[in-house]
Amino acid sequence: MKKYLVSFIVILFLSAPVQAKDSCSTVLCMAGMLQGSGVVSGCKGFVQDYFDIILFNSHGGISLNKTFKARGQFLGQCTSAGNWPDMINNKYGRQLGL
C-alpha cells in the first residue's frame, strides 16, 4: 500500500501546474535597471526570466530578432506598465545577458 501511495504522490507532484512567469514584476525590476539602479535585491529571478527567453533560427543559431519579439511579447503581458515594456525591450531585447 505504501508503494502505491508514494507513486500517487510522485505523480501528483510531477503533474502540478507550472507557475507562469510574472511579467509585471519583471517590468518593475527592469525599469529600475533602465534608470540606472542595476539589478536590485529580490529582482535577480525576474530579470533572469527575461534573459532566459532565447529563440533560435532554422539553422540552430540564436535569432536576435525572434528573441527581441518574444521578450517584447512577454513584457507586453503586463498591460498596466505603460511604455516601460517597449523602453526596456529596446535597450535589452537583443542582449544575451547582462
From TrEMBL:
This is TrbM protein. Residues 1-20 form the signal peptide. It comes from the Bacteria. Keywords: Signal.
